[in-house]
Write a structure and sequence with these properties.
With 470 residues, the protein is α/β, with parallel strands linked by helices. The chain contains 13 helices and 16 strands. The strands form three sheets. The protein has a nine-stranded mixed β-sheet with strand order 1-9-8-7-6-5-2-3-4, sandwiched between helices. α6 (208-219) links the parallel β8 and β9. α10 crosses α11 (368-377). The chain is globular.
Length: 470
Amino acid sequence: MSARPSQEHQMDVIAAAPTEGPGTAVTDRTRSLSRTVDVAVVGIGYAGLPLAVAAATAGYRTRGLDLSDFLVAQVNIGRPPVDTVTGAELDAVVGLLDATTDPAFLRGCSIVALCVPTPVDAHGVPDLDPLLTAARTVRHHLSPGQLIVVESTTYPGTTEGVVRDILEESGMVAGRDFGLAFSPERVDPGNTRFGFHNTPKVVGGLTAECAARAAEFYGRLTQRVHVTRSPREAEAAKILENTYRQVNLALINEFAQICHRLDVDVWDTIEAAATKPFGFTPFRPGAGVGGHCIPVDPLYLVHRATQAGVPFRMAEQAQRINDSMPVWVASRARELLTRDGIPMRGARILLLGVTYKPDIADTRHSPAEPLAAELLGAGAEVAFHDPYVESFSVRGRQLAPTRDLRAALAAADLTIVVQHHSVYREELLAEARLVLDPSGPGTTKATTAKPTITKPATAKPATATKGRQA
């Protein structure tokens, strides 16, 4: 096998939907664990389950493997355990998709995709243990001719390095006895415009044949596949995507602080700059950066770059700026309460939205947690409301959930909009005594409230007797 993909494989592959999948549709609701499986997805969380559903939708007989009995049971009864897949999507692949905690079936699969988490520890150091454990599981059941694809985000060189080394402990050689490739997940929870089928897939293979086989597989699942020179470029591309967002969010978050000090409306400024049809992409400030990608993925490259003696200074600084935003928002809260003659100690503060992005139920790395910790540390009484979250704890302390939102808005000395869920409309916020909105009412229209204490511009003066927005 050649060491690199040929020039034609470095181009984008535009994939037409196949007229025939590798399997046929099954109409009964039985999920049998004894039948032959084409595709195995190791890890059926927020990224793995969409892949499994996409493979089954394309006609592949697919099985998910997970350590979690709960996730497996939910999938097998057709109830999505994550919000990146809908119940209707699971119903559509009944008979072609099931899940198990038993890895024995891996030996008979043609394609095995690793979609396990790759977190960082408390010090920001990459934790590859879940990926390496998954690779060892696959090694125990590796068969000649299989294609192994890593989808878990990691630093460049991981697939060709430690993952390949573990798999080759089987006695088989990657690129000769089995295929090996990397294809980063690009799942965006809550995005109704782009899903698996219309988000281009990036693929990097150990050899040209590995790349071609991976591209053919993903070409059945999505409209476009882009093949890179090797797995390293595909690994780096994923981290670049999220570092781009991290750096630009840090820029706008720091810019928002400067605008506040200079009495400049940051949201009106962003809207004005966004009228330029080239050379500018608008980003919005917020209470911080959360989720499973932006606060984590750049740290993988920071770690690897530091090891290589080339520190990734911009990503490191961006991380520090974004991490500091909850502290700045807490200081703004103190400033606003002081203006109203209310001491922070004992102040009743209501947090709206504790997930990391709008209209999803995921709280991973949500800025609401460090923000609440700052407020609690200053002696405030903190409650929360979130239509997607039943309970929320901060450093072992459960925050009081709010059931009657209108009553809570009227009672709170200060309401902080941490996440703009669609239920938090301007007319509802007008019922609050005082509102601090770090991500800005300017995320909708330039005519909305400015970042000084004022009535929401969307509310009429005659009716907006209570709400004041900061």
